[in-house]
Amino acid sequence: MSLFAAVAVSLALQQAEDTTYARLIREATTDSHFLPASVATLPSSASVPSPLKYFGTIAGAPGVMHHADEIYGYFRALARATPRVRVETIGKTEEGREIVLVAVADSAVLAGSAGYRAALARLADPRTTPPGALDAVLAAAKPVYYLNGALHSTEMNSPEMLLELAYRLAVSDEPAIRTIRGSVITLINPVSEPDGRDRQVDWYLHYTKSHPTADDGFPRSSPFWGDYAFHDNNRDGLQLALALTRAIYKIYFDWHPIVMHDLHESIPLLHVSTGTGPYNEHTDPIAIGEWATLANNDITALEAQGLPGVWTWGFYDGWWPGYALWIANNHNAIGRFYETFGNAGANTYVRDLSDDSYAGDSVTTRQWYRPWPPTKKVRWSSRDNVNYSEAGVLASLTFTSAHATELLRNFWQKGANSMARGRTEKPYAYVIPGFARQRDPARAAYLVNQLERQAIEIERRTSGDSAGDFVIRRNQPYGDLVVNLLGIQHYPQSAKYPPYDDIAWTEGDLYGVTVSPVNDTAVFHWTGLARVTDTVAASGSVGGTGAVYLLAYHAQGNVLPALYALSAKEPKAQAFAAESAFVAGRDSYPAGTVILEGATAAGVSAAARRFALTFTAVSAAPAVPRHPEDLPRVAIYHSWYSTQDAGWARYTFEQYGIPYRSIDDGDLRRGALRTRFDVVLVPSFGGSVAQMINGIDRKWGPLPYQRTKDTPNLGTPFSSPDITGGPGFEGMAALRDFVDQGGALITLGAATQFAAETGIATQLTPHRTSTLFHPGSIVRARVRQRRSPILYGYPDVTTLFRGNGPLYEVANRDTGLIVLQYGATRHVEKDEGPMLGIPDTTPPVAPDTATGEHKAHAGSGSDSAYVVSGMVRGEKEIIGEGAVFDVPIRKGRVIAFTFDPLHRFLNHHEFPLVWNALANWNDRP
């Protein structure tokens, strides 16, 4: 008999069992192999309501899913019934729903939680706990274990499981549970994305619940989860753009949980994270060992209870630090996750696993990391899911309670190791030069503030020639995170398995901010430094006298927003773009410089302050070729089957204050686009060209996404009476007419297919590659058309972020349509060089233009190397190919990006490429 089985028998003798609940568990479990002893029964309580008493159903009941308010109502009922449960609101979503945190422990432990939190804060900073004081702090501390549910909205069972887990932890007299309750504070974020939860529950109850099979092709997901992010809500750990991410950060810094455990659903039957590697190169070896220790503990505990299909290793890698769980890993705690098999609802389905393969092995084969595989087909229910995940979490909590001191000591040690590496490993620090030495001071301030939000300590020089510089020394508890964010990512070329996500994130390059490493230990003795204790802001100014204002343009991200704001308040103001460099007074100005006329001094001064821009007033406009920057009416298109990247685009526009209107398939089909818009922006979205045109299969239509009495949470942020059918040929014809009539169509990343392969931009044809493997990395690109307004403010060689995606090419006669190319190597036309009959025709190699671009970001490496940070295989196949195309079509144009310059609100350095395309939408050299 296993330990858990023995405990269950012991419990039955000591505490009354809820026999009805236990019977319903057995009935909802599809196979006895899926019913572990640790969750096969539930204790009865006369005063504390179980899920059955509260809802009338057990957790994991067939066909039952609860909205966020219902889940919160149950947790609050627990808190009213027992002092072992506390509930607090820790944030609000974009739509105003609560994000709730539940704490479960003995009442005395919760009453003393402030002291335990203080002890954990001391362990988090070894400077406050020297080795001699460590044992005393450990004796005063208790581990906090955090559980994160419903991050991905179609992964629906974790909130249901967490209801039952909280009740069990609060009520059970089982010895193992009593030990957990007395020695561990369990934190539960039952619904980390409440907006998506409520939409998805509506979608399930109204639509997918009625589908008898799992693989009939009907969309299992609501088209939106959050207002902006879909699956990427678990890729926001570096940006902190979303309310749910900020709530998780608040939990971490309030409580310092030593384990943060995300509850996901996807693969059979239960995957316990470790990852195939390569692991992030700045992860402490202790953490890597802890991942494996906890995983092996859970696998052993569950298999001892007879559960097949529990495994580790062969899924995920452990490299990218922007997941929610990496909030823990980045701050010396333990980040981990489960992937429990799920059905995107509470239906019971027969699932065929025979084609599921991970790390090259079928999921139904026995491996060293999967000692007991499942059968090729399984009949799987919501309760099966609850059984596996709850039993796994209980095993993890049991281990944490038994090894509390060891885990707490490791938590302290990882911080101490980080500080030691910062003192002994190059670089010892990074310097972000002051705002006056940055191409875009506002973005430099943004980088500093982002580092602060990660609890990285920053100092600022107060005197001398370097006054205003920001200094980030690595001898601090999160010193490993400093180098992880500001240094180069060296992803190994020899990695056996493909990466799980992006592989580069060097923030200086992503933001276009000068960042310099310091390799001299003298940095630890620098004087004249003051700790930055609040957010910082760059300032703007207006100098000179006169009624014309000049703004030297270096692709500052705030210029276009400032022009829109000025236009809204001062309709007589008109901005022009200088088409070549010029000199005014003693100052030199690059091409793209803004010449502003008709604006009031007060309006320009307000814009300078608000947007951190520097204007110079002059008495007369310079005599330089120029064109008006006509601010366009912008539409951002989204499909209904892929809303994610359009969400990031909308978020970016809103953060920068650029007005737009969101449009969908129906807007395209209605036509007359040119009467309403000047620019249609199509953010990156995936799928074949046929899918882009046809969208969700019309056989499911009409499929409304609208708010009704039965679906009160659908219809936001946008609605439609029928989301099937895509734009169709009618919509594509309307989009072609829009371009023909003078509109600008801008396509980003994979969305370039939408123009290139549908007959709109026939000059673009797919560029096939055979060896190119280009996971998300920072690379170099070179200007091909120096006079193109799209490239105003950028030097001849710049950096950009690119992942895998389609490439395009043009015929030799159309190479002038390539505005920007991949790679720093200067492109040589086939007809360049000496020509008989025309002497001295070899053109000189032009130097990079001096536009204020920094010469080295953090880790820029060789000026000619293609890869700046990350890794690319087969790079010869992309160097010289088009990165941005500007294709004239009748009266209009298509501006096609073959990378995504609005990727997840990360690559701010590239946003002005899009802003340039908008501001100059009707100006093509």
Could you name the key traits of this structure?
4 domains; 925 residues; disordered N terminus; globular; Aminopeptidase; 26 helices; ten-stranded mixed beta sheet; single chain; eight-stranded mixed beta sheet; alpha+beta; Alpha-Beta Plaits; 37 strands
Account of the 3D structure:
The chain has 925 residues and is an alpha+beta fold. The chain has four domains: 45-418, Aminopeptidase, CATH 3.40.630.10; 425-531; 541-628, Alpha-Beta Plaits; 634-919, Rossmann fold, CATH 3.40.50. The strands form eight sheets. Strands 26, 27, 28, 29, 31, 32, 34, 35, 36 and 37 form a ten-stranded mixed beta sheet that branches. The protein has an eight-stranded mixed beta sheet with strand order 1-2-4-3-5-8-6-7. Strand 36 (882-889) and strand 37 form a beta hairpin.
